[in-house]
Design goal:
Helix content is 34%, strand content 21%. It has 294 residues and is α/β, with parallel strands linked by helices. The longest helix is centred in the C-terminal third of the chain and has 22 residues, at 215-236. It is globular.
Length: 294
């Protein structure tokens, strides 16, 4: 089940092939043991601990619920996250605020949903910064600040192994997700482009797994999802539409999962970000509560 990618470097697939609400992890079994993200699922965590023991260090790529749960299974006290994601990792209320959760009903629904995979906020977090090195013995892990998905989203590079854990630059067919208030489309584009420039031989993503072929082409295709979404919006706005008419059409996500209200909240945020970009680029106009292409 676990795959040794290089000596002492292990790819840990999450339950259901890392699909949300699970995610994949990377484990370094060196003199110091380091685990990146803990969203692999309870059964996989138990197998990991049985095989390798407790990690000495846990690094979280960002604060989203599918990357940070099951903290009770780890006795590790040295845990790191980027300072910009620390508030959301430590506070359910802050995470919900960033997700645009603005009603008690949606908050209760998300509470029930998150309980199904043992989510709870973290505590006693330390912070890392871009370029910081974790020297584990023979392996070094370098923090790469890669915002866009979240304000503090980070990737992790193993320079000698030419390997990158790219977290939620995840190369899924869905494309980039920027459905939180601290997400930013332009930053996401720049982070993907920086990864293209880096050209690692192996990428391990949170939800697509281990990729070692056609990496530049896959990154380019992933990046192209953003202008494709703007084309969809422009086509839809050939006639005037209100924002509320646009949201249910899933112009960004294509289709909605469950819980529906959660996906609708993300659609609103992502759509707002695109509309703002299109207005600034003077590709659409806003008048009398309606958007329309020029």
């Amino acid at each position: 089940m676990f795959q040794e990618v290089h000596d002492k470097v292990w790819f840990i697939p999450g339950n259901n092939e890392g699909r949300y609400p699970f995610s994949n992890s990377l484990f370094i079994n060196d003199r110091q043991k380091l685990l990146i993200d803990t969203g692999i699922g309870r059964s996989v965590i138990n197998q990991l601990l049985k095989k390798f023991g407790q990690p000495d260090i846990i690094c979280y790529s960002h604060a989203h619920e599918d990357h940070i749960y099951e903290k009770s299974l780890f006795s590790t006290t040295t845990r790191f996250i980027h300072e910009l994601d620390k508030p959301a990792a430590e506070s359910r209320d802050e995470l919900y605020r960033l997700y645009g959760v603005d009603t008690p009903e949606l908050s209760k629904m998300l509470d029930a949903f998150l309980k199904t995979f043992h989510y709870e906020p973290l505590d006693n977090l330390e912070t890392f910064e871009h370029g910081q090195l974790f020297d584990l013995g023979t392996i070094q892990v370098k923090v790469i600040y890669a915002p866009g998905h979240s304000g503090g989203h980070c990737c992790f590079e193993l320079p000698q192994e030419q390997l990158m854990y790219s977290s939620d630059i995840d190369l899924t067919s869905y494309g980039p997700w920027y459905g939180a208030l601290d997400s930013d489309i332009q930053s996401f584009e720049q982070s993907i482009e920086a990864l293209l420039q880096n050209a690692p031989k192996i990428i391990i993503t949170s939800h697509k797994g281990l990729i070692s072929d056609d990496i530049p082409e896959r990154l380019e295709h992933y990046l192209s999802k953003i202008p494709e979404r703007e084309t969809n919006i422009l086509n839809f706005l050939e006639g005037p539409k209100t924002f509320n008419e646009m949201v249910p059409c899933a112009l960004i996500q294509g289709k909605f999962g469950e819980p529906l209200e959660y996906y609708l909240a993300a659609e609103r945020i992502m759509l707002q970000k695109h509309l703002k970009r299109l207005l600034e680029a003077q590709k659409i106009i806003y008048s009398d509560g309606q958007y329309q292409t020029l």
